[in-house]
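Might you be able to review the protein record set out just below?
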Amino acid sequence: MGIAMVMIGFLFVLVLLCSALLRWNEMRYNKTNLPPGTMGWPIFGETTEFLKQGPDFMRNQRLRYGSFFKSHLLGCPTLVSMDTEINRYILKNESKGLVPGYPQSMLDILGTCNMAAVHGSSHRLMRGSLLSLISSTMMRDHILPKVDYFMRSYLGQWSELENVDIQDKSKNMAFLSSLSQIAGNLRKPLVEEFKNEFFKLVVGTLSVPIDLPGTNYRCGIQARKNIDRLLSELMQERKDSGETFTDMLGYLMKKDDNRYPLTDEEIRDQVVTILYSGYETVSTTSMMALKYLHDHPKALEELRREHLAIRERKRPDEPLDLEDVKSMKFTRAVIFETSRLATIVNGVLRKTTRDLEINGYLIPKGWRIYVYTREINYDTNLYKDPLIFNPWRWMVSISWSHKTHVLCLEVGQGFALERN
């Protein structure tokens, strides 16, 4: 009886303590003129619910608080906007008190020189360096031939497998393809070490920034240190060899005729950015495209017809060129439709650099704003039967603004490709 009373008393105190913590955290952010919402637990906020429930968490919060609400996600007080007009305003006014605002864990792990962390002249330098690596000349002479060679080799290995885990193979394909562009002809043990550390790094970027042993954040930080060590050793080895390399790392390290000279630290951050930025989007899009094509034989047949027509014009060992890729209209439609239906990119994050008034609310300096665009992809005013996989919808003449809902978001006078 005595033990039972002690247990009941302990549970009662625990409930009171939890309630007090939740109340205290709400009071911390209970400033006047902020949108409605909840802030969850101290430090953790509502990160667990956000990561586990995903779109369901967003829909539930919108039902309770409307399309513009506050929360605490990934270690940061955050405003979530699911309002089309507010989203448009935020993306058109980036230079007016708003900058890219990715979570602190992502900034810590990807490096202080990555494009999401720098602004002004540093951002222009890093952006110019990245764009120079994917120019039309680079695409024609280096990137496409290497991708063609890699995919032939990679897919050729599947014939030896009894079962193929598409999710696992897609993730490996996305990473290894990018790594082959950055540093070709790496030894297999080094590639495996890169891959193992990179996968830990990815998990760490989407975690609460608590630097304690065993946490995903600590593992991500350590993985980044290990990747820096591997890159530093590789770069020093190349400097000592005196050879000229034509992969991306070779161009980043080039001293002569380089419009965007970078320090060794900036080069390492740029390499990690390239690997990271395309990994999740490419692997998920590839996996979901395979699923949709499997479920829709007519679309698969049309895709095969387009590819076989291109192949008939070429020798068996002749790689695809830029004109071949440009002619793949139905393939592009499949990619658009997969990106729309699977919603690979849910939105983008911005950070306030000063107190900012939006929609009648005063947003404090340092808060994140999550521009959530997922629901636009299922808007019946934009897409007929939006839950049906229909690549042919992209083959008809529709306004460019519809296509930008899938892959691009309007920013100022141009368009910027965003990750997550």
Q: What stands out?
A: The longest strand covers residues 68-73. The beta strands are 68-73, 76-81, 98-100, 347-352, 356-358, 361-363, 368-372, 408-411, 414-417. The domain at 110-417 is CATH 1.10.630.10 (Cytochrome p450).
